[in-house]
Amino acid sequence: MPKPKKRGGNHQRGAGGQPRNVQPFSDEDASIETMSHCSGFSDPASFTEDGPEVDEEATQEDLEYKLKGFIDLTLDKSAKTRQAALESLKSAFSSKILYEFIMERRMTLTDSIERCIKKGKSEEQCAAAGLACLLCVQMGSGIESEEIFKTLGPVLKKVVCDGTANVQARQACATCLGICCFIVTDDITELYSTMECLENIFTKAYQRDRDTNGVSSTHNTVLHISALLAWTLLLTICPVNEVKKKIETHLHKLPSLLSCDDLSMRIAAGETLALLFELARETDADFFYEDMELLTEKLRALATDGNKHRAKVDKRKQRSVFRDVLRAVEERDFPTEMVKFGPERMYIDCWVKKQTYDTFKEILGSGMQYHLQSNDFLRNVFELGPPVMLDAATLKTMKIPRFERHLYNSAAFKARTKARSKCRDKRADVGEFF
């Protein structure tokens, strides 16, 4: 049997015990699995008739060979090498479906992640927590994912609750804890335990000393935000009775976070309030909030904030978010958004769906559209049904001719330019008075 070719000396340790050079997972690598798995999911506009033929079996073997090398490197002595390997695995897991490959190596991956979270420094812990999220996204809800969470859950909770640990590492572990619990937990006791752990973190933001300017920001704010958002995600899958209890506990406390001087905290608190009101009205048609007038005043002030000490970009973002939050609280309204992926469309028409979509988009990044097309778990979460399979012949009939595509793009560019010019003219005439 012939020996396999040696793949790049970059996996060898150089003289003097220097760390290995890890070749990161590239966009070219990302296209390998996409070409084999996603021929039925491609955007019709991207279909090419004269593309070179690809030996899918060979490219798949090459991809798996690289991934096996990255998994081995997560046990390397060099922290930089381990971190680079974790990041490469994250890129691969977010850009393609690797269920069968991961299924065979899930325990090895789980052990590597556990070791990196326990013994690594902050950046390595963050990368390992991110990989744990993607591992559960790949595996979906099932016995195998439950086994992964049983191993990693206690480790993640320990880091989240450790006041001496790095804040960024605690933040990443809080996010990971919420997402993994959302995906795998059928045990209601474990769900409540995880929510309590996150609750103990973000409720500390309620207890800060306040000055005349509102709630002062601390270095733990990023941790409080991540814990709050992860807790909110888990609240969306709680039984009705538990939802009512949580709303009674937190609805009158959350408005205090709207005075925080950190923009991300204000936005997180505002969006959580909108979601709580949505859940409260779904569970009780006669729901009444006593301090509605005071709350709407706060929200309206944030939706029209003109503080000159804040950056224009921050003010615009805040106004946009809180206009929607105010409409949700006052008018029970939600601005529907449409998400396109391949030949399909998904409408985000409520705060629960928005919270879930934003969470997974943060984890998957540019791979979100691909996973919406082909990841059974995500399609089940968003009620998209089984993946839509289109063969090459169907795609060819759907393909838009190049000349028509050029005319469409030119028209769209001209329309966009005119619209932006009008906006600039209005800003020039009216000015910014806030």
Q: Please name the CATH topology of the largest domain.
A: Leucine-rich Repeat Variant
Number of domains: 3
Shape: globular
Percentage of residues in helical conformation:
55-70%
Domain Interferon-related developmental regulator N-terminal: 34-330
Biased composition (Acidic residues): 50-59
Subunit structure: Interacts with PSIP1/LEDGF.
Organism: Urocolius indicus (Red-faced mousebird)
Description of the molecule:
The longest helix is centred in the C-terminal third of the chain and has 29 residues, at 402-430. The protein contains 18 helices and four strands. It is mainly alpha-helical and 434 residues long. Helix 5 (122-139) runs antiparallel to helix 6, helix 7 (167-184) runs antiparallel to helix 8 and helix 7 (167-184) packs parallel to helix 9 (221-235). 64% of the residues lie in helices and 3% in strands. Residues 375-428 form the Interferon-related developmental regulator C-terminal domain.
Reconstruct the topology from this structure.
Elements: H1 27-37, H2 56-73, H3 79-95, H4 99-119, H5 122-139, H6 143-161, H7 167-184, H8 188-202, E1 210-211, E2 214-215, H9 221-235, H10 240-250, H11 263-283, H12 292-303, H13 312-331, E3 337-341, E4 344-348, H14 351-364, H15 368-374, H16 376-381, H17 392-398, H18 402-430
Antiparallel strand pairs: 1-2, 3-4
Helix pairs in contact: 1-2, 2-3, 3-5, 4-5, 4-6, 5-6, 5-7, 6-7, 7-8, 7-9, 8-9, 9-11, 9-14, 10-11, 11-13, 12-13
InterPro entries: ARM-like, ARM-type_fold, IFRD, Interferon-rel_develop_reg_C, Interferon-rel_develop_reg_N
GO biological process, one term: cell differentiation
Domain Interferon-related developmental regulator C-terminal: 375-428
